[in-house]
Design goal:
By secondary structure, this protein is an alpha/beta fold. It is 42% helix and 17% strand. The protein has a single domain, classed as Rossmann fold. The chain is globular and about 45 Å long. The chain starts with a helix and ends in a 6-residue tail after the last strand.
Length: 306
């Protein structure tokens, strides 16, 4: 029995070819028989391994888990021009079809949360639930938006036209995107993962995230949804994250006392809150049991008074 559990939760990676689109690296945990499927969508400049590597096994105890590298990131589908969130959403829909995943819970972190929202918008027949972490319906007036306004468009143009700048990688943006990492080994690992994404793609992805807005349609979400708020976030403000939760009918709120880089700097905390959020939207027996047991602990999101 123990061997079966270890095999179900052991993260494995492979390249998956999407006809007409290209190949992407995908991390997978088989999960228990009949378990719901989670598709984990990483953030700007990250890889699936960096964003989710330390929580794959805990999630795999309860779910089938699929975590791809997005296009232009890590071993994702090469991107030959401007990075578009819509392309990423369509890639994931194609991946689900190739893997025979059926309906799945889309779990997105930061920019990945925006892509998860677009997945529901563009492919509602595939999405059974949403878990949105450290993200927003828009980042107007946020530190991320202000960073873009200060010069990312100019930087993107310079990188595109200068072949030497195009050799730079996203590890340059690490401190701004992840925040301080105190453990030297973790810092080295994070830099190595960030260096697998070109700076041009990372800058273009940040632009796409800053231009995104789901304000006009996010209230139409009609699948179980959980929003994980990083309450010390200095990149996507907690107020924006809570605003997203209030805009989605029936969404539940799950808070973590952490900054935007929680997935890297505080994996035990991240695993606990993420598992709680995923179980709260699961359709299978495990999710039903957890929802009943946790009903008194979780706080439903309601619009602020006034």
């Amino acid at each position: 029995m123990r061997q079966v559990l270890e095999e179900a939760t052991a993260p494995l990676s492979r390249l998956v070819v999407l006809p007409g689109r290209g190949a992407m690296r995908v991390w997978e945990c088989a999960g228990p028989p009949g378990a719901d499927t989670l598709v984990l969508i990483h953030g700007v400049a990250a890889t699936a391994e960096l964003n989710w590597g330390r929580v794959l096994a805990p999630l795999g105890c309860h779910f089938r888990v699929v975590a791809p590298d997005l296009r232009g990131h890590g071993d994702g589908i090469p991107t030959g021009g401007r990075f578009r969130l819509e392309d990423c959403a369509d890639d994931i829909a194609a991946l689900a079809t190739v893997l025979g995943a059926g309906r799945f819970v889309a779990v997105g972190y930061s920019m990945g949360g925006m892509i998860a929202q677009l997945l529901f918008r563009r492919h509602p027949e595939l999405v059974s639930g949403l878990v949105l972490c450290s993200t927003a319906g828009n980042v107007v007036e946020s530190p991320m938006k202000k960073l873009t306004a200060l010069g990312l468009p100019t930087a993107a143009a310079a990188i595109w036209w200068n072949p030497f700048l195009r050799l730079l990688t996203a590890d340059i943006l690490g401190p701004a995107l992840v925040g301080p990492i105190e453990d030297p080994a973790t810092a080295r690992w994070a830099r190595a993962q960030l260096s697998r994404t070109g700076l041009a793609t990372a800058v273009s992805a940040m632009q796409a995230a800053c231009e995104f807005s789901s304000d006009g349609w996010i209230g139409q979400v009609d699948v179980p949804t959980a929003v994980v708020v990083t309450t010390r976030d200095t990149l996507v403000t907690p107020s924006r994250q809570r605003e997203l939760a209030r805009a989605i009918p029936g969404a539940s709120l799950h808070e973590a006392q952490a900054d935007h880089g929680m997935c890297i700097t505080a994996p035990p905390m991240f695993a606990r809150v993420l598992l709680e959020a995923c179980l709260s939207v699961a359709s299978g027996p495990t999710g039903d049991d957890r929802r009943t047991a946790g009903a008194g602990r979780r706080r439903a999101v309601r619009p602020a008074a006034g």
